[in-house]
Fold Prostaglandin E synthase 3.
Amino acid sequence: MCHEPTVSLLGPFGYLLSQRQPASAKWYDRRDYVFVEFCVEDSKEVKTDFDKNKLTFSCLGGADNVKYLNEVELFQSIDPNESKHKRTDRSVLCCLRKGESGQSWPRITKEKAKLNWLSVDFNNWKDWEDDSDEDMSNFDRFSEMMNNMGGDEDVDLPEVDGADDKCLTLNKKSSCGLGKGWENRWKAKYFNTLQQLLISEL
């Protein structure tokens, strides 16, 4: 008896499309957070489970509704209540709040393991431990991310000691006799405001 040949549709990592397969992901470390971006276009039914020591991600992706599932035993603990995710048409970004701020994560997994679906996001990677200007270097990045998020809501500008409110605006800053270093102080406080707004939008 002759049998019709069967054709298996395989995903990017050799899994059957009918099975759950891991989504390609990138990650990078920051002082207070660890960011993980799951690269799934047109994702649907997105679910993220933030446990103290584990991250679980699942969704359907693309026109074929490919089933994705990722489970990561984390390098260190996180704060599940302060961890969030944001979906876009191209990916799902997870923001993991570190259980201990200021602790560097040399890797995201608990064990030293090579996962073919996980890589370091070198475009955003930064050795912040040796950089006292970590907040200043992030100022432009968070400003850009906030702008890309759109919206017409006003941003409450931070106050700088000794500054006239009329002297500081979002698009134009005048020293107003504040002396050397006023702009860095303004940027540092404004960056903190942007960071909190970004996290709240996730």
The beta strands are 25-29, 33-38, 44-50, 54-61, 66-73, 84-87, 92-97, 118-120. Residues 1-9, 136-140, 146-178 have pLDDT under 50 and may be disordered. The first helix runs from residue 134 to 148. Residues 124 and 143 are 15 Å apart (CA to CA).
